[in-house]
Amino acid sequence: MKKIKLLPHEKNLLETKQLEDITHTNSSSTWLWCRSSTESILCQEGYQNNRSTDDTKIPVYRVMGDIEVAYLLKNNLLPDTQPYQAIVPGPDGRVYMEGYLKGKKKVDTTPTTVVEFMIPRTLWDTLFAIQHKNEDGVVSVGLGNKAGKGNGLFNKSLESNESTYKIVTVKRSVKEK
Fold first, then answer.
1. pLDDT reading at 42 higher than 70
2. Does an H or E element contain 152, and which?
3. Is the entire prediction scored with pTM above 0.90?
4. Residues in a beta bridge with 111
């Protein structure tokens, strides 16, 4: 018999229907998922080059491990422990970051979660001007000390509630009982 081991915040998101269980039969992992914040707006308005007609906020995505997520949930800030801390905008950014959970992309931080941040367009433009690079068809901006060093700016925006976040995808291993 398989037992799902969810972390308390994941269990709460599932119970409050902020995430839904989309795990397929016989999967070796449990998958929790929800729509992006802007999905219905972007479908209605059109989304070209990561821009919608409401250009004040944009979604950016980041894949994270459990320690980073715990820090974010506790402090409403990103830790400064990751050397690159890439964020990627728009629907393609989410697909790209989910690739780390699906094994299409590799990283040594044991990612479990994709977080969507809604950030001011002006913050994105500032971070983009500091540092950006093309990665497999998307543009990433690094926040860490080996990339753009924009973590402080990003955290100021989170601290002031100009930027918000929500967990949009979780992959959790299923343990045999």
1. no
2. helix 151-159
3. no
4. 65
CA gap 167, 143 in Å, rounded: 19
The residue among 117 and 40 whose pLDDT is bigger is: 117
- Which single residue is written with the structure tokens 């894949």? 63
The residues near 15 (Cβ < 8 Å, ≥ 6 apart) are: none
Q: Would you list the DSSP string of 11-78? A: HHHHHTTSSEE-PPTT-SEEEEE---TTHHHHHHH--BTTB-SS-SEEEEEEEEEHHHHHHHHHHSS-
Residue 74: which residues within 8 A CB-CB, separation 6 or more?
Answer: none
Ranges of each domain in the chain: 2-176
> Cα torsion at 147, 148, 152, 156 (round to 10°)?
-130
CA distance 130 to 143: 10
Which phi and psi angles does 9 have, rounded to 5°? -70, -35
pLDDT of residue 50: 43
User: pLDDT tens-digit profile of 132-149?
Assistant: 999 889 999 999 999 899
pLDDT at residue 43 tops 60: no
